[in-house]
């Protein structure tokens, strides 16, 4: 992706691109940038948008090879170009048979491969595949030789935080310490969800440049992560009514009770870990670095740790483990077991 970004910043395009990957926001931004460079005046006469489910490689190659109107460049974008997707891994012996599917006719990709050997210099062809593209496939090698084959992967950790920081700075917003890590923690994977929350935050903070933690907490949508922090705060405060109410709200929102159980157990493990590291003299930044925890998580865990003794935290984990065992053995329904566990933790 870095090579692609560098070339586009220089205003350079390739005759062939093969794009795929989970990070649709970055992928669509790349397509838009290439379109601007290829058709700077928004020329619709020389723009062709195709659906791979409704066309074939031969037709794509023929269109890409044809002359453009008025001698300008042509842009051909094919979405759902899945004629060359990676094949399924071989099924294990004990794996159940997949559901019967309609047998698909084999697609002849030779015309497209032939085109990539000598692409039309006046055409920019963008193939966008769904799912994975094997790097040892002929189409990948041909696209890489003729131009660029790029997988768009969602940035993680520091790279994700850097993206958000740059996005807010571009909107003339300066986040105070903790805002970036909080938003990255609370927002779902992928940049689309993060951008959506950042856009709401920018609007919320219209008229001021500095973005505070309270601004972020007021704007970011209630995710499962936010709900578990709220749930933990209420169990720490020994408020079973509020905690059970929060649990039921999360379940009504469609959150999986098994997922909530795992996240709650993970949070109590983090509280125990942070309490122990703090007792051994680690500072808050050192804990975040050594334990690979989000700084916001460490801050919350340090506050929660003050309300518990070690034996209480271990007991809380035992209670949550017992729920998992009882559910899997059929002794209790997950929702009921989770509510009972929360009330027991509140009674510690």
Helices and strands in order, then pairings?
Elements: H1 2-9, E1 16-20, H2 24-38, E2 47-51, H3 57-65, E3 74-79, H4 110-117, E4 123-128, H5 138-146, E5 148-151, H6 157-170, E6 174-175, H7 179-186, H8 191-204, E7 210-211, H9 213-219, H10 224-236, H11 240-252, H12 257-279, H13 284-290, H14 295-305, H15 310-328, H16 334-346
Parallel strand pairs: 1-4, 1-5, 2-3, 3-4, 6-7
Keyphrases for this structure?
alpha/beta, Rossmann fold, 348 residues, elongated, two-stranded parallel ribbon, 16 helices, Helicase, Ruva Protein, domain 3, Zinc Finger, Delta Prime, domain 3, 3 domains
For the termini, the CA-CA separation is 51 Å
Q: Give helix and strand order, one letter per element, not per position.
A: HEHEHEHEHEHEHHEHHHHHHHH
Q: Main sheet, how many strands, which sense, barrel?
A: 5 strands, parallel
Global mean pLDDT: 88
- The number of helical segments is 16
Q: How many domains is the backbone divided into?
A: 3
């Amino acid at each position: 992706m870095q090579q692609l970004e560098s070339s586009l910043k220089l205003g350079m395009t390739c005759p062939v691109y093969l794009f795929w990957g989970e990070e649709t926001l970055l992928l669509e931004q790349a397509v838009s940038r290439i379109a601007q460079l290829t058709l700077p005046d928004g020329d619709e006469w020389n723009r062709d948008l195709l659906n791979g489910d409704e066309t074939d490689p031969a037709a794509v190659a023929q269109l890409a090879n044809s002359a453009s109107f008025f001698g300008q460049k042509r842009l051909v974008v094919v979405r759902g170009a899945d004629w060359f997707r990676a094949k399924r891994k071989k099924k294990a012996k004990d794996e159940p048979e997949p559901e019967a599917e309609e047998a698909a006719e084999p697609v002849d990709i030779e015309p497209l491969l032939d085109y990539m050997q000598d692409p039309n210099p006046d055409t920019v062809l963008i193939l966008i595949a769904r799912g994975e593209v094997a790097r040892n496939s002929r189409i990948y090698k041909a696209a890489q030789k003729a131009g660029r084959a790029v997988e768009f992967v969602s940035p993680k950790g520091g790279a994700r935080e850097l993206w958000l920081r740059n996005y807010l700075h571009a909107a003339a917003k300066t986040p105070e310490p903790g805002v970036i890590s909080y938003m990255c923690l609370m927002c779902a994977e992928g940049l689309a969800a993060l951008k959506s929350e950042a856009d709401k935050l920018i609007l919320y903070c219209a008229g001021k440049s500095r973005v505070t933690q309270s601004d972020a907490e007021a704007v970011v949508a209630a995710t499962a992560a936010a709900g578990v922090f709220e749930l933990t705060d209420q169990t720490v405060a020994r408020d079973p009514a509020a905690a059970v109410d929060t649990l039921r709200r999360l379940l009504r929102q469609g959150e999986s009770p098994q997922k909530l159980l795992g996240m709650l157990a993970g949070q109590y493990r983090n509280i125990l870990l942070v309490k122990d590291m703090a007792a051994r003299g680690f500072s808050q930044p050192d804990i975040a670095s050594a334990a690979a925890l989000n700084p916001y998580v460490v801050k919350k865990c340090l506050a929660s740790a003050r309300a518990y003794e070690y034996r209480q935290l271990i007991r809380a984990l035992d209670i949550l483990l017992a729920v998992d065992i009882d559910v899997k053995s059929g002794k209790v329904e997950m929702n009921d077991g989770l509510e009972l566990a929360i009330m027991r933790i509140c009674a510690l």
